[in-house]
Amino acid sequence: MASNPYFNQPLTPTRPRMFNSMIAKVIWTIVPIVTLGLAAAVPFVVAAVKGVVKPWLAITYVVGEIVIIAVALALDPAGDDGNPIAGFLLMILIITAATHTALLDNDKVSVGK
């Protein structure tokens, strides 16, 4: 009896995955933290290249990172701790990017996928 190739295929095509293992997930999640937000968009650019997320999400993160860092530098160009808002903006960027990076392979999140 001949086998039908359609019987072994999944019903829906599987979405590409960002992380191959838990170690990879941890490493990618700490990238925005270790780089102090300077590479916050890198996981999203890689995810867009892999096809995990849509390119508009990566572009949004790149533009958002540039804007937040530019505003933080404009608020406190000397870095003399005169304005705490600049540090607060960078902390929000780091926390947001790390959280969203950890959620890249979550099936419950559908925005940008």
State the gist of this model.
This protein is mainly alpha-helical and about 110 residues long. It has helices at about 20-35, 40-50, 55-75, 85-100. About 55% of the residues lie in helices and about 0% in strands.
Structural class comes to mainly alpha
Mean pLDDT figure: 86
- SS summary, helix count: 4
- Biggest β-sheet, characterized? none
Distance between the termini: 40 Å
Strand content: under 5%
Residues in helices, as a percent range: 40-55%
- Taking all Cα atoms into account, the compactness measure Rg is 19 Å
Sketch the topology as an H/E string, one letter per element: HHHH
Inertia-based shape: elongated
How many DSSP E strands?
0
Low-confidence stretches: none
Folded structure, characterized:
There is one protein chain. The chain has 113 residues and is mostly helical. Helix content is 55%, strand content 0%. It is elongated, with a radius of gyration of 19 Å. 22% of the residues are buried.
What are its keywords?
113 residues, single chain, mainly alpha
Which helices and strands occur, and which strands form pairs?
Blueprint: H1 22-34, H2 42-50, H3 55-75, H4 84-102
